[in-house]
Design a protein that fits this description.
globular; 2 domains; Tyrosyl-Transfer RNA Synthetase; 3-stranded parallel β-sheet; Rossmann fold; binds tryptophanyl-5'AMP
């Protein structure tokens, strides 16, 4: 098989219900690469266990994340959809790259610092080396482009550094990947605390809109969204709540900032929040429907993950044999 298309890789953790942050910042963009790139979209279950998971929930969410990929428009025939732990080369390369990643580099990762503060009872070694495993995911497929939200930028830069370091020692081995960060939706903020990221692990359910929330829940959450004491729908740095809602509204309608500001000129926040809730719920309705249909057929999902893992393993093997040879392992 000759690979002449450029390669795209991205992953999502099955560590919680997926949010509109995951959708708008990452998954919604994935399908735009399906035609012109060779695409690998992975459910990164090895990453998820850096935080304690309930086994039955992890299993269920792994199926759900795969089904959501498909429900968001990723055709399994045009994209390689698979589960990370089904391709052992991720963990194997992860270990090898650990030996080319510096303690100091990993100590500087802001996500590690945030997560260790949040899970102070379980600051495990996996949480610390998480970014190296992520580098392995990306480098294993000789990835050119990695579509992610802005929160993954630091990890991506580390992956590039590791690739360049390895190439410098052993000669050209890994493609040095570039990030693809969609500027408009790179950071969807919490509805309750619009200066922090919307996160699937947030305990405040009103702060987070899940892709699979019902229309009523979505509208209720947007109605409660924190704005400010002004009543003017205007995009501005000192109006983080309103600006976040404008971003979400734009993502579902394709309108520009000016169009949105004009549309709600003089209409107040009540009207605006309801409209954001409606476009969001209506935009997600087809995803929810398709998701339910896919989840009803587990054996089809299993066939997709099996075929995906076989395909991914084929590409992974090529990189691994090169890496083993370069490092000096006996064949
Ligand atoms: P994860 O599972 O936290 O999130 C999945 C994707 O969603 C993006 N995202 C957001 N984008 C905009 N606004 C938000 N509020 C928001 N929240 C999340 C994330 O940036 C991500 O693109 N470490 C990764 C998973 C991973 C990975 C990889 C990604 C493992 N290996 C290799 C790319 C390539 C993570 O925790 O994503």
């Amino acid at each position: 098989m000759i690979q002449d298309k450029k390669i795209v890789f991205s992953g999502v953790q099955p560590s919680g219900n997926l949010t509109i942050g995951n959708y708008l910042g990452a998954i919604k963009n994935f399908s735009r690469f399906s035609e012109d790139y060779k695409t690998f979209y992975c459910v990164v279950d090895l990453h998820a266990i850096t935080v304690r998971q309930v086994p039955a929930e992890l299993r269920r969410r792994t199926y759900e994340t795969l089904a959501l990929y498909m429900a968001c428009g990723l055709d399994e025939k045009k994209n390689t959809l698979f589960v990370q732990s089904h391709v052992p080369a991720h963990a194997e390369l992860g270990w090898m790259l650990d030996c080319y990643t510096m303690f100091g580099e990993l100590s500087r990762m802001t996500q590690f610092k945030d997560k260790s503060a949040k899970h102070s009872q379980n600051i495990n070694a996996g949480l610390f080396t998480y970014p190296t495993l992520m580098a392995a995911d990306i480098l294993l497929y000789q990835t050119d482009l990695v579509p992610v939200g802005i929160d993954q930028k630091q990890h991506l830069e580390l992956a590039r550094d590791i690739a360049m370091r390895f190439n410098q020692i052993y000669g050209d081995t890994f493609t040095v990947p570039e990030g693809y960060i969609s500027t408009d939706t790179m950071k969807i903020m919490s509805l309750a605390e619009p200066t922090s990221k919307m996160s699937k692990s947030d305990e405040n359910q009103n702060a987070v809109v899940y892709i699979l929330d019902s229309k009523d829940d979505i509208i209720r959450k947007f109605k409660k969204a924190v704005t400010d004491s002004d009543s003017c729908v205007k995009y501005s740095e000192d109006k983080p709540g309103v600006s976040n809602l404008i971003t979400i509204y734009r993502a579902f309608t394709g309108k520009s900032i000016e169009e949105v500001e004009r549309e709600f000129d003089g209409r107040g926040y009540g009207d605006f929040k309801l409209a954001v809730g409606e476009v969001c719920a209506d935009g997600l309705a087809p995803v929810r429907e398709e998701f339910s249909r896919l989840m009803a057929d587990k054996s089809h999902l299993e066939a997709v993950m099996k075929a995906g893992a076989d395909e991914a393993a084929y590409y992974a093997r090529k990189t691994m044999s090169k890496v083993r040879r370069k490092i000096g392992f006996v064949n």
